[in-house]
Amino acid sequence: MQRYHVYGIGAALVDTEIEVNDEFLANANIEKGLMTLVDETRQQELLAHMKAHQVGSKRSSGGSACNTIIAASYFGAKTYYSYKVANDENGQFFRDDTEAAGVSNTMTHQAEGTTGKCLVMITPDAERTMNTYLGVSETLSVENIDKEALAEADFAYIEGYLVTSDSGRAAAIKVRELAQEKGVKTVLTLSDPGMVQFFRDGLQEMLGEQVDLLFCNKDEALGWTETSTVADAAEALKKSARTFAITLGKDGALVYNGNTLEAVAGTKAKAIDTNGAGDMFAGAFLYALSEGRSYVDAAKLANHAAAQVVSQFGPRLRPEQHAEVKTQVGF
After folding, report:
1. Residue 178: pLDDT above 70?
2. How many CB atoms lie within 10 A of CB 294?
3. d(CA 84, CA 171)
4. Strand order in the sheet with 253-256
5. What is the mean pLDDT of residues 122-139?
6. How many CB atoms lie within 10 A of CB 14?
7. Which of 272, 265, 269, 262 is nearest to 251 (CA)?
8. What is the rounded distance in angstroms from the CA atom of residue 110 to the CA atom of residue 221?
C-alpha cells in the first residue's frame, strides 16, 4: 500500500474569483469576510450581477482542505484526498485538476447532481468573502473515506467546514477516530470565524477530547477560546490540541509544539487577495513536518508561502513557485 504524508477530507468546490467593492457587498446583503452557504439560485443571481467583475476566466479546484492538500503535494509531500463531486463537467474538472497536482484519490464513480461551487469575492483591502453552494459535497459521508489510505498516512487533515453538513460532520468524526486507532496524527482546521460562531457544538464533536495539531487564525482562536488576547487564547487552546499554529496575518504565526510557544515573524508582502492564505499555511506547514522539520522551521516556510499567495490573485501558487519558496527559506 502507498504511504502518504497527508490524508485529507473536505468539500470539493470549483472556485470562481471576483473583484468587488464594499458597496457591492452591502447592496447584495453579503456579510464581509465570512463564508456563507447559499443555494444555487442565489449563486447564479450573484454571478449575473458580477459578470463584469470576474478576474480572468480560470477556474480552480478548491475548498479549504483541497487547497491545503494541493499545496502540500506541490511542496513535495505524498497526498491523498477524499471528496465528492457530481458527474458533471465541473466534477471532471475538479478530478483532473487535483490529479494534475499529484493528489491521489479512488474516485471510481461520480454522483448524480451538481458539483459544489464557490464565489470568492475580493475587496480592495484584499479581504475574501465567500458564497458557497455545496452541491453534492454536502452529502460527503463516511462512505467516502478510504480507510486503507488513511491508515497509511502520517497526518489526517480534517476541514472545519465539514461541520455544516450532518453527513460531513459524521465523516470528519470517523476520520479522527480511525486515525487515532491507527496511530495517525489528527489535524483539524477551524476554517472560518463563522464556523466557530455558529457551529461550535459540531466542531467540538469533530475535535473530540483533543487533536494532535490545530490550525486557526487569530479571530478563530479568540472565538473558540472565548478570550480577548492571543496569549490567553494560546493557553486555552492547549485543552483542544496537543500542538497548534495560530496565524496572525502580516505578523506571522504563533506555534506551540507541545512544549514551547514561539512567535515566528511574518514575511513582508503587499496583499491583494487573502483568499487561501490559511490553506497555504497549513499545506506548507504539514509538508515541513513530513520532512522532520521543527515547528518554527515549518512556520517560517508557511509564513513565506502565505505571503506569496496573498500577493497575487487566487488561492494557490503556481506549481513552480513552491520550489522557489523552499529555496528562499533554505529548505
Report:
1. yes
2. 13
3. 12
4. 103-104, 79-82, 4-9, 153-159, 185-189, 211-217, 241-247, 253-256, 261-264
5. 92
6. 22
7. 265
8. 36
- Residue 207 and residue 189: Cα distance in Å, rounded? 10
List, edge to edge, every strand of the sheet that includes 116-122.
35-37, 128-133, 116-122, 13-19, 60-62
Q: Residue 28 and residue 73: Cα distance in Å, rounded?
A: 37
Which residues contact residue 38 at a Cβ distance below 8 angstroms, ignoring those fewer than 6 apart? 46, 131, 132, 133
pLDDT at 265 over 90: yes
- Work out the angle at residue 118's Cα, subtended by the Cα atoms of residues 112 and 123, and round it to the nearest 5 degrees: 170
Q: How far apart are CA 70 and CA 113, in angstroms?
A: 25
Q: What is the pTM of this model?
A: 0.93
- As given in the structure block, the three cell numbers for residue 15 are 472556485
Nearest Cα neighbor of 85 from 33, 139, 17 is 139
Which CATH number describes the domain made up of 4-329? 3.40.1190.20
Q: CA 238 → CA 215, 228, 234, 252, 255, distances in Å?
A: 12, 16, 7, 20, 11
143, 41 Cβ separation under 8 angstroms: no
Q: Which residues have CB under 8 Å from 78's CB, separation 6+?
A: 2, 3, 4, 5, 6, 104
The one-letter amino acid code at 46 reads: L
**Non-local CB neighbours of 81 within 8 Å, separated by 6+ positions:** 7, 8, 9, 10, 65, 66, 69, 98, 103, 104, 105
Nearest-5° Cα angle at 223, 191 to 20: 55
